[in-house]
Amino acid sequence: MLSVRDVTTAYQGLVAISNVSIDVNKGEIVCVAGANGAGKSTLLKSIAGAERPRAGSVTFDGNRVDGMAQHLITAKGIAYVPENRRLFPRLSVRDNLRLGSYLYRSEANREEPLDFVFKLFPRLSERLEQRAETLSGGEQQMLAIGRALMTRPRLLMLDEPSQGIMPKLVDEIFQAVKRIRDVGMTVLIVEQRMAECLEIADRAYILQTGRVLMQGTAAEISGNKDVRKAYLGL
To answer: In 193-217, which positions are buried (b, 16+ CB within 10 angstroms) versus exposed (e)?
Structure first.
């Protein structure tokens, strides 16, 4: 479904990722892990159109998307939830979700994905009239994911979805990611919480200083003694 080939991207004048190649197959959860500054977020931005690669290619369903505007990439079926969520803080939960369906604003079934969003995150249905800025960190992350799902994506990309969330809600977010995959969606997730990410992923890549250090199935990565020592603290 997604093929990233030899992508190099600079961020604020510095090369953040260099010659990075990854593949994501339909129906997979693929985890990209690594320490701060490894280039994980830049990789997602390069795919989503938030950053333009200096070199390399990004292909989605057989079509090149690198160099396209971000809203056009979204229309192709790639939804991106950035690290800072980028909600509209003074708008209600309902309005934030509706803004996610702007691609379908002229259609009668514009809000069809809402049922699935509320099944994933019942808290959102209880807070429809609350402003986004009044939600907890975990609830804001749920809203950001829900808004992305309103675009009806085939590939959902999540950047550090556990960041700034109370530990008791982290499991809820990861279980929601599994349920998203179970309904046929593909997920590419960037995480520092490697152990939790590997538990739900099919395959994983480890980035280090802007390059792919290691790749394999989630079981292979989690069973690697060097990974267990350096990244999992085991």
So the answer is: bbebbbebbbbbbbbbebebebbee
Low-confidence winner among 60-74, 85-99, 101-115, 219-233 (lowest mean pLDDT): 101-115
Res 164: pLDDT:
83
Structure tokens at 161: 């979805």
In the chain, the domains with their CATH numbers are: 2-230 (3.40.50.300)
Instruction: Say how far apart CA 25 and CA 60 lie, in whole Å.
Output: 10
SS (H, E, C) the chain: CEEEEEEEEEECCEEEEEEEEEEECCCCEEEEECCCCCCHHHHHHHHHCCCCCCEEEEEECCEECCCCCHHHHHHHCEEEECCCCCCCCCCEHHHHHHHHCHHHCCCCCCCCCHHHHHHHCHHHHHCCCCEHHHCCHHHHHHHHHHHHHCCCCCEEEEECCCCCCCHHHHHHHHHHHHHHHHCCCEEEEEECCHHHHHHHCCEEEEEECCEEEEEEEHHHHHHCHHHHHHCCCC
